[in-house]
Design brief:
Elements: H1 8-32, E1 37-43, E2 56-62, E3 68-71, H2 78-93
Antiparallel strand pairs: 1-2, 2-3
């Protein structure tokens, strides 16, 4: 029986695809909020793991404002990355500069 899990090789290339897809989105956000940063984390899952039974990536974006800007669920496919990129792009389009004048 063939496994439906992403191989380690597949998840590595998915992370690269995610970076190439998301870096321009977060760069645009950074023009509005310079403190913004993002990370892509790869999980190579162990068959015996109780919590991470599938290889996947997660994306998190933090900033100097309260809370986080973005956090993905487990991304396993290009379609997952594309959906997250579209959501993030929509949020970036609505991003407003922080009004510090009081």
């Amino acid at each position: 029986m063939t496994s439906t899990k992403n191989s380690s090789h597949d998840i590595f290339w998915l992370a690269r695809y995610a970076h190439n897809t998301l870096a321009p989105v977060f760069a645009q956000a950074k023009t509005v909020e310079p403190s913004l940063q993002f990370q892509i984390k790869i999980t190579f899952a162990d068959e015996d793991s109780k919590f991470s039974k599938e290889n996947h990536i997660t994306v998190a974006s933090h900033w100097g404002r309260d809370g986080m800007f973005q956090l993905s669920s487990w991304l396993r496919t290009k379609a997952d990355v594309d959906r997250f990129a579209a959501k993030s792009a929509g949020d970036v389009a609505n991003l407003q500069p922080l009004d510090v004048s009081a």
